[in-house]
Structures are given as C-alpha cells and as structure tokens.
C-alpha cells in the first residue's frame, strides 16, 4: 500500500497578519464601526471559533469578511472566552483582527491607524505571529 505524507512548513500555515484590538465595546458594535469606517462587510459566522485545550472547550465569537477585489479574507475574533484567552500572551486585547490571503502587499500600519481612529477602540497594535507561543490556536 502506498504511503502518503503531507509536507508543509509552519511558515505556510502562519501566512497571515494579526492586529490586537483593545475595546470595551461588544463585538457587534465594534464590527459595525469597522464596517462603516473601513468599508468592510463583516458578518457573524454561524458557528463561533471553537478551541479545545486540555479537555476544556471554549468558544470565541468570529466575524468574517472577504475582500474579493484584493484577494484578502478578514476575521475578527474575540480574544476572551468563558474558559480563558485565545492568545494568552495578549490578555489586554479584547479582539484579534486576522488578515489572510494575498498579504504581501498589505500595509498593516494603515489598518492599525484606521482602527485606532475609531471611537470605540482604545488601541490597536500589530502582533508578530511568529513570536506567539499560542500561534497554533490561530490556524484554521
């Protein structure tokens, strides 16, 4: 019987950009502001992002938007669940904005500046994905 092996590098799996967002707003209010300001069309996914760690399952709200013109997919994830944090290294961030797709030409600072200008955003900072200990939790 033939044996098949999958060959991929961690670099290929971590091919996304990440922005941490601190905000006291509810997720739907933040999405509304982002949609209005950045001309996005975030919508809540039918299912939350579910993660099981050491037998404990947690759910994180997830919104998505596909920018077909620029071949980008955006995901807004809640960083706080009932059991803990999605990215424990950044407990001060309430939300994570993930950008996937054709990211080679994305100016992440432009998105950070636009997010910071929103009234209900306290701060927004780019996160170096390669340095995250919990980066595996963001692969989906």
Short description:
This protein has helices at residues 10-13, 27-38, 108-116, and strands at residues 16-22, 43-44, 49-53, 56-60, 62-67, 72-78, 95-101, 123-127.
Description of the molecule:
There is one protein chain. The protein is of the alpha+beta class. It has one domain (18-138). Helix content is 18%, strand content 31%. The protein is built from 3 helices and 8 strands; from the N terminus they run H-E-H-E-E-E-E-E-E-H-E. The strands form 2 sheets. Strands 2-5-6-7-1-8 form a 6-stranded antiparallel sheet, with helices on one face. Strand 5 (62-67) and strand 6 (72-78) form a beta hairpin. The radius of gyration is 16 Å and the shape is globular. The model is unreliable at 4-13 (pLDDT under 50).
List keywords for this structure.
single chain, 140 residues, alpha+beta, 6-stranded antiparallel β-sheet, 3 helices, 31% strand
Distance between the termini: 30 Å
Would you identify the regions where 5 or more consecutive residues have pLDDT less than 50? Answer: 4-13
Quaternary class: single chain
- Order of strands in the sheet with the most strands? 2-5-6-7-1-8
**Percentage of residues in DSSP E strands:** 25-35%
Helix content: 10-25%
Categorize the overall geometry. Answer: globular
| Helix and strand element order | HEHEEEEEEHE
**What's the pLDDT, averaged over the residues?**
85
Radius of gyration: 16 Å
Count of separate structural domains: 1
Overall SS class: alpha+beta
Let me know the largest β-sheet. Answer: 6 strands, antiparallel
Please count the beta strands (DSSP E, at least 2 residues each). 8
Number of helices: 3
